[in-house]
Amino acid sequence: MSAPKIDAGVSLTAVSAHTASLAEVLEILDRDGGVIVHDMLSPATVEKLRCELNPTSEATAVGPKVDNKNVNYFWGEQTKRFTRLAQRSQTFVDDVLVHPTLIGVADALLKPHCASYWMNTGQMMIVMPSGAPQYMHRDSDDWPSMCGPTKPVCQISCMFALSDFTAENGATRVATGSHQWSDFSRAAIDSEITQAVMPAGSGMIYTGKTMHSAGANKTKNEPRYGLHMSYLYGWLTPEEAGCLGVTEERAKTFTKQQQQLLGYRCYDASQINGGRLWTVDYEDVPTGLGWTQ
Ligand SMILES: O=C(O)CCC(=O)C(=O)O
Question: What mean pLDDT, rounded, does the chain reach?
Answer without folding.
Answer: 94
